[in-house]
């Protein structure tokens, strides 16, 4: 395995980092808001599913139970 010079490695890292396209502040804010909205919608969805399953199970257990 070839070993690289630490100075050469740092120069290559700098070259690669300069190619990165960083998001704007607006893009970061919008995507963060979208993540929170999607998380809230997912929480509501699974809460409703949980409520439906729980009600169904209570109905079935109540029908066959005492």
Structure write-up:
With 66 residues, the chain is an all-alpha fold. 80% of the residues lie in helices and 0% in strands. The chain has helices at 6-18, 25-64. The longest helix has 40 residues, at 25-64. The mean pLDDT is 93.
Can you give keywords for this protein?
about 0% strand; elongated
Helix tally equals 2
Give the low-confidence spans. Answer: none
Structural shape:
elongated
Can you count the beta strands? 0
The CA-CA distance between the termini, in Å, is 73 Å
How large a portion of the residues is in β-strands, by DSSP E?
A: under 5%
* Helix percentage range: over 70%
The major sheet is characterized as:
none
**Which whole number gives the mean pLDDT?**
93
What does the radius of gyration come to?
27 Å
Sequence of secondary-structure elements? HH
Protein structure class? mainly alpha
Could you outline the blueprint of secondary structure elements for this entry?
Layout: H1 6-18, H2 25-64
Short description:
This protein has two helices and no strands. The protein has 66 residues and is mainly alpha-helical. The termini are far apart.
